[in-house]
Amino acid sequence: MSSNPDDNQINPNETNPEERRILIPGSPINPRREFLRSAALFTGTVAALGGGLEVLTRRPGMGSAEAQGTAFAQAARPLGPYDTKEAVTSYQQATTYNNFYELGTDKADPARNAATLKPRPWTVKIDGEVKKPQTVDIDTLQSWFPLEDRIYRMRCVEGWSMVMPWLGFPLAGLIRRLEPTSKAKYVQFTALLDPKQLPGQKSNVLDWPYVEGLRLDEALHPLAFMAVGLHGKVLPGQNGAPLRLVVPWKYGFKGIKSIVKITLTEKMPKTTWALAAPSEYGFYANVNPAVPHPRWSQATERRIGELGRRKTLPFNGYADEVAGLYKGMDLRKNF
Amino acid sequence: MSAGDARQTVPAVKAQAKGSYQPRRKAASLGWLVPAVTVGGLLPLAVLIWDAYTGALGANPIQRATLQTGLLTLALLVASLACTPIRLLTGWKWPARIRKSLGLLAFGYAALHFLIYLFDHGFSLGVMFEDVLKRPFVTVGFTALLLLVPLALTSGKNSVKRLGFQRWTRLHQLVYLSVALGALHYYWGVKQDHTPPLIYAGVIAVLFAVRFLKRKPTKKQGGPEKTSPA
């Protein structure tokens, strides 16, 4: 920040003036060689400093991520009652800007690293307070329900949002099929734990495996959704292949990816982010513009692809559908 | 920044004045250094603009630009603070010559970081003041930037003369507070992976330690003439 006022001066203690006199005026200086030397040093320094700073600070986004997955055979269909009519976020953006710490903490990391995640073969274990505990193959599980499209807003707790055209089935159908016992009050979801497939798990940024949960009535709400596809294609790894949760009125981190276990429980599940930073992320995590994150306001959000910000809506715009679930609850405490 | 530097150079000026030899000879051969640091320091800005133009900043370019300008500020501030410890440890003279450029580059990126933040929030001063007052994460970052303003304004040689060396040095010690707050701002800004901000904090701590350890012996042997308050 500062300057030494006499930077250009030579400290006479450094070299004996007598020596200097001998060394400098006497030595023949080749101006051309001197110029070339300076030019080389100049270029080298520019490259070293500029390159060093780039290495330290530049985190380029993903240029492009083409859909590797096969497309689902789907006929065009009219918008359903839960679909938003807002412009859909492009496949390119939805698959290159992801929070999936198991595949890296940078937004572009999951798209780069997704190839290590193998979504087939894949089984989902169902246990806890259900009448039919079982381990089921993902293809079998998928075959239980007709696939539906859902165009949902997705609001990340970090203050950005997307509009995602999911493919999948309502969570309620799955829960009912599993026949919860009378003790079941919550649904806990557990993601894959396998540092080979999810190399981000080699670092202890979070307590792995990732765990999320819903109250049973939330899980039974028709908006709660299990996605297996996106933009008409098989769900890419970076978006949580082969099976992920989508709860559009909650912050995105509730949407656990790459699920391997669904457990019905009596007690409220201990969820990953709520354990990692309880003052910042609660169990409910309903989108709420009135409750700021400790480090930023939640009143506005940037829709990916837009430069300005838009106002964040209570329950991410799904208040009419879901506000009733939280009647009588203080949502400032139960954030 | 360092009183030691400047005081030692006073005799150098005198020596040069009567000098039959040419002590500038060696200095002139380093004439490329400051321009090279300036160009190298601005290179990431050019790449950033290019990235924005080509879409390489990804789906949320404003967030990327905010993050990168913040990181550039911290990296360049740390580099400027490394100059004196490097000189103390190695005896090299060149680090002192680029310190001011590194500091000014850091300030430039900090100002840009702040401007992008303002742009992000539609230049709403209401949002800014709410953030600054309510959210410690923003408060420390904003304070770190404010502390750099007087330093940038008094970075010229004239300011040293005007303020007097003692006062100028004391003023510029604010850079330590600023870089510490900057590192804290980074630490609080990171959602979960705190390793990178802790690395910065560690480097800053080492730089402080070097200065602290290196200044004791000079005190003993040299008396007040050689102490380096910086």
Short recap of the structure:
By secondary structure, chain A is of the alpha+beta class. Chain A has helices at residues 17-23, 31-57, 91-94, 109-113, 138-143, 171-178, 216-219, 272-276, 319-322; strands at residues 123-128, 134-137, 148-155, 160-170, 186-191, 211-215, 225-230, 233-234, 244-246, 259-265, 300-303, 310-311.
Describe the structure.
The complex is a heterodimer of chains A (about 325) and B (about 230). Chain A is of the alpha+beta class and about 325 residues long. Chain A has one domain (about 90-325): Oxidoreductase, molybdopterin-binding domain (Sulfite Oxidase, Chain A, domain 2), CATH 3.90.420.10. Chain A has helices at about 15-25, 30-55, 90-95, 110-115, 140-145, 170-180, 215-220, 270-275, 320, and strands at about 125-130, 135, 150-155, 160-170, 185-190, 210-215, 225-230, 235, 245, 260-265, 300-305, 310. In chain A, the strands form two sheets. In chain A, strands 3, 4, 7, 8, 9, 11 and 12 form a seven-stranded mixed beta sheet that branches. A five-stranded mixed beta sheet of chain A has the order 2-1-10-5-6. In chain A, strand 11 (about 300-305) and strand 12 form a beta hairpin. With about 230 residues, chain B is mostly helical. The model of chain B is unreliable at about 1-25 and about 220-230 (pLDDT under 50). The chains are: A alpha+beta (about 325), B mainly alpha (about 230). The interface between A and B is large, with 69 and 94 residues.
